Amino acid sequence: QVQLVESGGGLVPPGGSLTLSCAASGSILKTDGMGWYRQAPGKEREVVAIRTSIGHTTYRDSVEGRFTISRDNAKNMVYLQMNDLKPEDTARYFCRRWSGTYDEWGQGTQVTVSS
């Protein structure tokens, strides 16, 4: 069973930085898609950044230039580097891994941006 565990969230002031990590059980395959999503209270879950199995990377417009997704298949890890954080980035952040045969979500890690 694929399992994802996120870490690295916390409380940061506006303009601060955080790096989120997602550790995957088993191996991250070249054919896996990996992504970060977030959900704020009372709002729909939304995509933050994804990297597809063909290497296409996309970012939500509001985070492009500030966030960077990366993956290390050999280490079974995916990361989200977040810079210049804004209050509107406050949300619970989730890691996702999917393929044609599975679709797994982590439990999430809370990011709160506030002074």
Give an overview in words.
With 115 residues, this protein is mainly beta. It has no helices and 11 strands. The protein has strands at residues 4-7, 10-12, 18-24, 33-39, 46-51, 57-59, 67-72, 77-82, 91-98, 103-105, 109-113. Strands 2, 4, 5, 6, 9, 10 and 11 form a 7-stranded mixed sheet that branches. A hairpin with a 6-residue loop joins strand 4 and strand 5 (46-51). The protein is globular and about 40 Å long. It starts with a strand and ends with a strand.
Indicate the topology.
Elements: E1 4-7, E2 10-12, E3 18-24, E4 33-39, E5 46-51, E6 57-59, E7 67-72, E8 77-82, E9 91-98, E10 103-105, E11 109-113
Sketch the major β-sheet: 7 strands, mixed
The count of helical stretches stands at: 0
**Compute the gyration radius: what is it?**
13 Å
Distance between the termini: 40 Å
Succession of helices and strands: EEEEEEEEEEE
- State the total count of DSSP E strands: 11
Low-pLDDT residue intervals, each spanning 5 or more residues: none
Shape: globular
Average residue-wise pLDDT: 93
Q: Percent of residues in helical segments?
A: under 10%
As a percent range, the share of strand residues is over 45%
Structural class based on helices, strands and sheet pairing: mainly beta
